[in-house]
């Protein structure tokens, strides 16, 4: 992995930007473009980033692109239901075979995240211009490298507990909000051969993906989620009596 | 829970017993009947056990029965695909709301287990009359209470690693086999408000569910998986600015 | 455990009450007495509670008492260094053999907690009359039963991250404070055959242990930490070639 | 870390080699020299490896050397008690501040491992020329990269469960032995800012550290345990009311 850049595909739903003036003003080229620029800005030559959106052919992820993606980032919100079950199947298969997945903000409610978690992924929310403070609870974790504790986000949607997810394999960030709510805002899981990171800051109504610390986390997460080797699936496998023999 | 017995529903696929003479000889009343008798034998008055099978109306689990089940046990093998997606949805919903689920042996490949795990749940196997030794790696866990380490099962199908599951929240048993293979054979997870236990001994070709130690584990698992309170779901919930106010 | 009450020993440092008028006004019989009354109030006949303090003979925990304790609760602050290493050895041994341990507030810095965690157990703090909100992040956990989310504590010392502990085996509560800080305030670990729960609310300068929800958590934790069976140690054990033989 | 090699210090007890002809025949330059050569063989320019032993000045680890060590490996057996408590204090402090630690075989019983785990670290054992098979249960873990599953070690001491350790944060390898025993033989923990890996193969009576797959695991573990940044301790820290202020 040291020699070849990590091939990151930024998947964006790409709908809010087209119909909400406020969102378009923050993200004139789409939220995905800003997410991609953040990853590139902080990961540099370690990554090669492409953007795709839901309205692209094959919903942005034809087989060939998915096969050549090391890490996929996912932001969606109002069109989760439009994502085809076939695509969800293919992304799940890719993750279990080793592809990294970084799920962002309202992506908690996407088909693919719920598929991989097995839980409802429901949470409490309020779009009320809260201040979010993102605290590091695992300071040596690579995803937390280089950011202050707390990261301060002046305006954000509130996401609060109970967040119905499997207990994370690694809990990295916990946020608090103006209303006093808390949220496990940076969570890592290993599923099959793939790594999954969920990072909650990033509502479309606020310019969160322009925040330098948030951008650094995006880059850290993309690098952290990169697979260590080629993809490999785990089939049901018959092991003959002599499959393993001591010479 | 101290006053009312835990309502355990034993779900059996019920197909092998009807067509395989060998299976029927071990389990003349069905594997489910033997599983149920094991739970009752060792949990006594703490449980009230019912049996249902795939070929019963509503595939054995009408809404009213599922609603009045505290812990569901699941054994299936050759008819996983016949289980309706609607039933899988309803069982998942019940587990996330608090119902316990005990998945047995080839149930690792059932729709409901794969749904709740989010992974392939694939493994390595060999039906070659292996001796299985079930070692306790968490001796204070309630599911391991009262059984020797190892439990010795003279004849069993081999299940071996890699077993593609999320890392268990609690690893209780690890088995070895005649061929030298190992397997995480007793695994616990918390999902939503429900508890899930997977216990691998129990192939239909061998009389495993007559083994006293195995029967005690079944009973322990049923009691351990029982919910602490009434079911409760976790919806996406809007939290108004004044939903929580310090007086 | 259903028949015999859980034998809970509440260990209190017992020094602040003797010299600080403010503390004595909240806890005229000692903090330990109030902690004990909370456990009894909410666990009822399930427990039998005794109190001891540092200034009692054998620092409150002679061998016979420790041997007959199912769950020990620990509150200390200004006299951690006075606790003898021999007592720490004996308590650690008891926990690993199955005794439950509930560590409260400034007990995070006690010798016994640091011994069992293996980390510094350091944290950030401010005694500034913060409001603490204690949120449940695992609503089905027995220790969270019956309390609202959040528990609101009007006045408390702030404890904030980074809290240098091993990642909890089960994370139950996360708190926020007036200053926006967050803290993993309810954490469970399994060590050896024993269960350990850390619950952070409870500074001596505020009447926290009179708060009904806090008292319920104390009771829940005491019941949760109770051992399932008699104590058992794990020695280095030689296993002869014929120690386990298939007949 | 990409530019500078990881500074690995191999600490060896160095006693068996001096008095046991059999051990000296396998390890004429000391076990530590063979461990070091394995790390260098498979990690190459990514590491810079030094060897020290118990009988060196300052028991091999003067403050300056410890301060310039990124990853420490530890093999000890018959002289655990000779290691000074002061050295244990210093190594623990270094690990919590970020230094990696790789504990090998009988090092499970060392003062430093017991200190960091908080448990007895006891296990079952038999020196009876067992065949050990080391199975990978987390195939995407960096420490398992490039080794077959199972690794076959023709002759080894048996280490068996119950192994009294905290549940690993990541379980990578599980071994089986000729006698049918199983053992969690590759375990990872995060403590403070440091990473700890325990790998059990490697008894002094067998030439295990000449085994190519074992050597690759040693190298993988050393690279995996390397810190991501400079050391940092976590003190008890007072946070003034105005320490964090939103502008």
From TrEMBL, chains A, B, C, D:
Protein name: Trehalose utilization protein
Record organism: Asanoa ishikariensis
Gene3D superfamilies hit by this protein: 3.40.50.880
ThuA-like domain location: 7-225
Any Pfam family: ThuA
Segments traversing the membrane: none
SUPFAM superfamilies for this protein: Class I glutamine amidotransferase-like (SSF52317)
């Amino acid at each position: 992995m040291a020699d070849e850049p990590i091939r990151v595909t930024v998947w964006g739903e790409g709908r809010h930007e087209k119909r909400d003036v406020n969102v378009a003003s923050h993200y004139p080229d789409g939220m995905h473009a800003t997410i991609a620029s953040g990853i590139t800005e902080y990961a540099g030559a370690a990554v090669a980033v492409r953007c795709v959106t839901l309205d692209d052919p094959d919903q942005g992820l034809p087989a060939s692109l998915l096969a050549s993606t090391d890490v996929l980032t996912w932001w969606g919100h109002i069109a989760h239901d439009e994502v085809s079950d076939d695509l969800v199947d293919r992304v799940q298969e890719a993750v279990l075979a080793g592809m990294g997945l970084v799920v962002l903000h309202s992506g908690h409610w996407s088909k693919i995240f719920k598929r991989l978690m097995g839980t409802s992924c429901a949470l409490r929310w309020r779009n009320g211009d809260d201040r979010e403070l993102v605290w590091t609870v695992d300071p040596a974790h690579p995803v937390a490298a280089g950011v202050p504790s707390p990261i301060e986000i002046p305006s954000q949607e509130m996401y609060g507990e109970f967040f119905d997810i499997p207990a994370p394999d690694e809990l990295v960030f916990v946020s608090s909000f103006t209303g006093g709510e808390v949220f496990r805002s940076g969570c890592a899981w290993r599923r099959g051969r793939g790594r999954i990171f969920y990072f909650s800051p990033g509502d479309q109504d606020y310019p969160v993906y322009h925040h330098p610390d948030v951008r650094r986390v995006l880059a850290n997460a993309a690098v952290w989620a990169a697979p260590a080797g080629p993809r490999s699936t785990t089939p049901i496998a018959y092991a003959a009596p002599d499959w393993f023999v001591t010479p």
